[in-house]
Amino acid sequence: MILKFILLTSFCLTYPNGETKCGQYLRDNLTDAPECRSMAKAIGTAQKRKIEGLGGSMASYNVFCYAIDSKGMDIDQSFEISYNIL
C-alpha cells in the first residue's frame, strides 16, 4: 500500500540577460499519483509564467513522483513526467 508520494521538480530558467539559473522544488506528503501530477503541472506553469513575465524563458523542467510504501520507495509505482518546453 502506498503511504504517500514525494514530488521532486528540477528546473532551469534563462533570464533576459542570458544568465541561466537552476533550482529544485520538493513537496512531501502528497496523497496519490493524480495529486502529484497536478502539483507538478501547477508548479511548472507558475515557474514558466513568472520567468516569461520577466522577459526570460524556461530552459528545462523535469519531474519525478516517488511512491513511498512501508518499506521505502516503491519503484513500480514511482514515475517520471517529461515536459516539452515551448
Question: Which labels suit this protein?
Answer:
86 residues; alpha+beta; five-stranded antiparallel sheet; 5 strands; 24% helix; elongated
Task: Note down, in words, how this protein is organized.
- There is one protein chain.
- This protein has one helix at 33-53, and strands at residues 2-14, 20-30, 57-69, 72-73, 79-82.
- It has 86 residues and is an alpha+beta fold.
Question: What is the gyration radius calculated from CA atoms?
Answer: 14 Å
Structural class: alpha+beta
The backbone outline, from C-alpha atoms, is: elongated
Strand proportion, as a percent range, falls in over 45%
Number of strands: 5
Helical region count? Answer: 1
- Stretches where pLDDT is under 50 for at least 5 consecutive residues are none
Fraction in helix: 10-25%
- What would the average pLDDT be, to the nearest integer? 94
List the secondary-structure elements in sequence, H or E. Answer: EEHEEE
Q: Please describe the biggest sheet, giving its number of strands, its sense, and whether it closes into a barrel.
A: 5 strands, antiparallel
Distance between the termini: 37 Å
Quick structural gist:
Helix content is 24%, strand content 50%. It has one helix at residues 33-53; strands spanning 2-14, 20-30, 57-69, 72-73, 79-82.
Task: Give the SSE layout.
Blueprint: E1 2-14, E2 20-30, H1 33-53, E3 57-69, E4 72-73, E5 79-82
Antiparallel strand pairs: 1-2, 1-3, 3-4, 3-5
